[in-house]
Structure formats: C-alpha cells, structure tokens
Amino acid sequence: MSVRFHGSGLEVGRSAISVSVPGTRLLLDCGLKLVPEGEEHPLALDELTGELDAVLVSHAHLDHVGYLSDFVAAGYHNPIYMTEQTARLTRLLLEDSAKVREILGHHSPDPGPALDLIQHVRLEEEVRLPGGTTFSAHQAGHIPGAAGLLVRGRGRSIFYTGDICTRKLHTIPPAELPQGPVDCLILESTYGGLSDVLPTIETRDRAFMEMIGTALERRGTVLVPSFAVGRSQEVMLTLHEHKKELLHHGNVRVVPCGGMLFGATKVYDKEAKRPIGLDTKNGPLSPIHIPKNRRIEKVASGEFPTIVIATAGMLTGGSSPRYLRHLAGDSRNLILIVGYQAEGTPGRELLDGSRRIMIDGQQVDIKAEVGFVSFSSHTYHEQSLSLVQDLSPGTVLCNHGEPLKCAELASAVEERLGIKASAPPNGTMIRVAARPT
Ligand SMILES: [Zn+2]
C-alpha cells in the first residue's frame, strides 16, 4: 500500500491523496485551493482519471470536493462515495462554485456528471471496492455529514481524518474514531501548531457574546463573516442558546445573508435534533427578513440593533464584503471574525492588524472594531495528540496545515508519543509499512 499527496501537503487546500493497493487505486478527497489570483488544482491528478476505482470524500468543503466537476470532466467515471448529508451539501457547493466561476469569467464544467457518480455510504458501513480493498466512513464532527475514512487492503490500513473535531459543538456530535490500531494515520494539522490552544465551548460562547454585547451597548451593528456550511449554523445556534442575553439590548435582529447559507441550513435542519428553521417565522432564532434591495442600507442605518451573519467567511465574495464596506466607517460597529483566514484574504489582513484593506478593488478604511473568536471545528495541538494516542498508528503523516503547523505537530507526535511522523510536501509518495508490534 502506498499514498501520494497531490495536494494538502504543507498547505491548507486542494486535499487530494491517492492510495494504491495491489488491485485497487483510490483517491481520498478531490478539492481545490482558493487563492487571491483564483484557484489552484491538485497536482498530477488528471493523469489518474482512467486508473482510479473510486473517489472517497470526507466532507463538503470546497478544499475537499471543489475539484470533482473538473476531475469528472477530465475523464474520471467511477463511483464517488460520501455520506448522504455530504452529498446534499456537495450538490449545493458544486452548483454554486460553477456559477461563481462563470461570473468571474472562467469556464466551469457542468457539475451534473460528477453529481451523477455519487454513491451514499452510511457511517461504519464496510464498503468493498474492486480488488478486495474495503473502506468505512466514521463520524468526524467538523461539519454536518463529515467523515474520517478508514481504508483496508492487503493487510494494511490507513485512517484519513479529513477535517476532524473531537469535541461536541452546538450543531454536531464529536468524532467517533474507528477501532485502532492502524498502520498509517493521515492527520489534519490546521490548528496543529504548538501555540494552538483550544478554548472550551463555554469560553468561546462567553467571549463571543461579550463582544457582541459591548457593540450593541454602544448602538453598533455586528457583522459576522461566516462560512456557509457548518460555521453559520453553529453561529446561529450559539446566538439562540444565549438569546436571553441578546434581549437585554432590545429587539435584536439577526440577519442571515447568502443563498448558500440558507441552502446549507436546510440540509442541516433535515437531520438536526434542533433545527434552525430559517424559513419559519416561529423558528428558534426568528431572524428578520428584509427585502434584499433595502437590506444593507437598513442594517447600516443602525435604526435597530442588528447582527448580520453573511458569507463568505474570509470576506472574499458573497455579501460579507458589501456589508463590510457599509459598516467599516463607524467605530461603534463590530466586525467579528469566527474562522480560519487564509493568507492573502481581506479577512487575514484585518486579523493581522491592517486597517486599510482592498475590497473588490476599492480601498476601505476600517474604523469599526475588529474582533476574533475561534469557532473552529478542528482538533487543536493537544486534541490531535490524544487522537493519535487513541488510534495508535504505526506512522503519522501530518497534512492540511501551514508548513510550521504540520512540522510542529509531526515533531510532537515523535517526541511525546514515540511514533514515527512526518509532514510530506505535495508530490511525495510514501509506502505504508506494517505497524511495528
Ligand atoms: Zn473542512
């Protein structure tokens, strides 16, 4: 058994890892990487279109599924496996991404043929592939539908975490790991650095509500730029959880914005114990719907206390940049960042302290307060080490993280747990050895 990194080696984005076992070749995830200049695709992947027996997908974020339409257009024609909830979200993402590409003047293949190849898998179900290799999907937390993937073939095993969260969120239960040990663990390292310390959900919620409370107190408007899938739902349920506190500030309106946010919330609600119900007036959050053409002015006027939750999460498109432009000039307002901000994005510039940023080619001066509360649904340094201990792998390959994070996590696995670990760059091919007994 061997693995090869086509993307996600020492980077966040374009997750795509091919696995070869005698008789079977498969791909773990098929994502793309959004960069300021456009997008980056997995390396040397198209040459495998005719050779792969299956694509296994961990979850519906663009950096894990965004290249599927292109890969199928390039000639891949075998099954694409994922959970049913991931399939629903993937449909939304690929259709939206095709529209965005066309708007930006890039050709996008029709996502239809890729969507037609999708086959649903249930969690914990063992699926047999040609050549005798099997795989199973395991609850990964992170976002609705997300799964870690366990592949077994010819006496070897790999567990690929995808993006994983081992603590319970308001929206989703924690990850459930498969029975170890495994020969090789491919471990996401988004927050794997030594300085990455996970706040408890209570601490997170407290910081979030306090910042919002202070801004509302001074009659400011709050903008929460948020990823449509997963994060927006967690933010909305957090506001609902602490609704009583909001009521101290009068009739606070929550304004969710973005077609993808609504679509993803519907998919979430279908299987949720506590649905958000954006379309029902009696939903737990009772968000306000203002006609689209008047919404931004109405919100920016500050005539009622408002919290806007708008996509995109890194202020790179969608409605969050438009709200930012309207709200940036008033020091009473609060721009509250809740997620990972990739280098080169306006969100990252704000977090790094810049108060003059470019939005859609226009210079914007930021007088509003900029706050950050991590709503991350990944494991952090210590939780990742516990996960490694639980699975007791023979080797660990740290991926899906900036180079320093991957390296620090790999070093800690070796030094503290005595397990062989590395952080391979893209292009690396690694033979999976049997776990030492
Ligand atoms: Zn993700």
Descriptive account of the structure:
30% of the residues lie in helices and 22% in strands. With 437 residues, the protein is of the alpha/beta class. It folds into 2 domains: 249 residues, Metallo-beta-lactamase, Chain A (4-Layer Sandwich); 172 residues, Rossmann fold (3-Layer(aba) Sandwich), CATH 3.40.50.10890. Helix 3 runs antiparallel to helix 8 and helix 12 packs across helix 13. The protein is globular. Bound molecules: zinc ion (ZN). The site of zinc ion has 4 residues, from loops.
What is the CATH topology classification name of the largest domain?
A: Metallo-beta-lactamase, Chain A
The domain count comes to: 2
The CATH homologous superfamily of the largest domain: Ribonuclease Z/Hydroxyacylglutathione hydrolase-like
DSSP helical segment count:
13
Oligomer description: single chain
| Gyration radius over CA | 22 Å
Helix content: 25-40%
Strand order of the largest sheet: 8-7-6-3-2-1-23
Small molecules in complex: zinc ion
In whole angstroms, how far apart are the ends?
18 Å
CATH architecture of the largest domain: 4-Layer Sandwich
Give the overall shape, derived from the CA principal axes: globular
- Strand share of the residues? 15-25%
Broad CATH class of the largest domain: Alpha Beta
Low-confidence stretches: none
